[in-house]
Write a structure and sequence with these properties.
The chain is α/β, with parallel strands linked by helices. The chain folds into 2 domains: 55 residues, DNA polymerase, domain 1 (Orthogonal Bundle), CATH 1.10.150.530; 281 residues, Alpha-Beta Barrel (TIM Barrel). Helices cover 36% and strands 19% of the residues. The chain is built from 12 helices and 12 strands. Strand 3 and strand 4 form a beta hairpin. The longest helix is centred in the middle third of the chain and has 16 residues. It is elongated, with a radius of gyration of 21 Å. It starts with 8 loop residues before the first helix and ends in a 7-residue tail after the last helix. The chain binds S-adenosyl-L-homocysteine and iron/sulfur cluster. The site of iron/sulfur cluster (SF4) has 12 residues, from helix 4.
Length: 351
């Protein structure tokens, strides 16, 4: 059954008027759900009690419970492992950085793309998340932060899953979150990260959305990219870069490229030069992230020196980049990693 977060405003209005309720009820419920991040109908104090009970029986909140909840040693990163209604697991990570409160959310349980270095890729595809399950991750942390007088300032779709593989549900969830009468986070504050699904990037470009896009490149030659990202074989780099250029042309927006630096693998001078040649002159920025080691992959992160060298080579092509810190390492805050540890410790997965 769909959860209350799976309904758009028109559907909610229809449901309430069908129950003989006045029109303004839908607005009231919507504000409770998305502005107050109410955890249930019982909290909706300006609704008649019998209506609250009827709605609670008709419209469940997403069936998700926190199976594990971990805070990093520095207290800046918090990770929740969710158990979904069908026993699948997903993760959400909150990162505090100066005034920013960035949430890293999941779009699927598992992932079909099989990137060799990624803990989620290593577990394979389980299923798409519903709109409600995507939205609920954000509202949970909104509720927690509100108790401290804070709010979610940024959302990145960089948790488990490939958001553009679950296109409809992910973008419907994004639309829900940016609704000015509801949760009202700015469209520019939600970043989608994709492994590079070419037709989906073109569709996203045509929709001229304001939500920024990041493309996980990781390699600048087809041979190297195919080694790291099996799904890349479907779309050679030439096609991917054409889609990226199309995105920039359609939206006028800068594109971000993600690059996990793996020692001796994709952090060589040749790869940096190939990347420089590939994207020079493009309206883009590169995020260099030293690999987060995972159990199923033997690669090791590049050293600080090699990362700096890579960055310097890119600069020779006029390409700007940032070396990102790995955060929350002590709580396995990398993609899919808490779930992996949970399994290893025999805590059960239900899958
Ligand atoms: N599926 C999407 C979004 C989720 S992954 C994508 O691949 O873009 C979010 C980012 O984390 C991607 O850039 C991905 O390549 C990166 N990533 C995954 N596993 C990693 C690891 N072990 N170390 C560093 N980055 C990793
Ligand atoms: Fe999927 Fe992204 Fe992990 Fe690749 S890096 S397996 S696309 S979640």
């Amino acid at each position: 059954m769909n959860s209350v977060y799976d309904l758009d405003f028109a559907a909610l209005t229809g449901l309430l008027t069908g129950l003989g309720q006045p029109k303004f009820r839908a607005r009231q419920v919507w504000e409770w759900l998305y502005q107050q991040a109410a955890p249930d109908f019982a909290h909706m104090s300006n609704l008649p009690k019998d209506l609250r009970e009827t709605l609670a029986a008709k419209l469940p909140f997403p069936q998700m419970t926190t199976a594990a909840d971990q805070l990093s040693r520095d207290g800046q990163t918090k990770k929740v492992l969710w158990r979904l209604g069908d026993g699948r697991f997903i993760e959400t990570v909150l990162m505090r950085y100066h005034k920013r409160r960035t949430l890293c959310i999941s779009s699927q349980a598992g992932c079909a793309m099989g990137c060799v270095f990624c803990a989620t890729g290593q577990m394979g595809f389980l299923r798409h998340l519903t709109v409600g399950e995507i939205v609920a991750q954000v509202l949970h942390f909104a509720r927690e932060l509100a108790a401290e007088g804070e709010r979610v300032t940024n959302v990145v779709l960089m948790g488990m899953g490939e958001p553009l593989h679950n296109y409809e549900n992910t973008l419907t969830a994004v639309d829900r979150l940016i609704d000015g009468d509801g949760f009202n986070i700015g469209a520019r504050k939600i970043t989608l990260s994709t492994v590079g699904l070419v037709p989906a990037i073109r569709r996203y470009a045509d929709e001229k959305r304001q939500t920024p896009l990041a493309v996980s490149l990781h390699a600048a030659t087809d041979a190297e990219r195919n080694r790291l990202i099996p799904t890349a074989r479907k779309w050679p780099l030439a096609e991917l870069m054409a889609a990226c250029r199309y995105y920039i042309a359609q939206t006028g927006r800068r594109l971000t490229f993600e690059w996990a630096l793996i020692n001796g693998e994709n952090d060589t001078t040749e790869q940096a030069q190939a990347l420089g040649r590939l994207i020079q002159g493009m309206m883009c920025h590169v995020n260099l992230i030293p690999l987060n080691p995972t159990q199923g992959y033997g690669g090791v992160p590049s050293s600080r020196e090699r990362a700096a060298q890579f960055q310097e080579t890119l600069a020779q092509y006029g390409v700007t980049s940032t070396i990102r810190l790995r955060r929350g390492i002590d709580i396995q805050a990398g993609c899919g990693q808490l779930r992996q540890r949970f399994e290893d410790e025999g805590l059960g997965t239900g899958t």
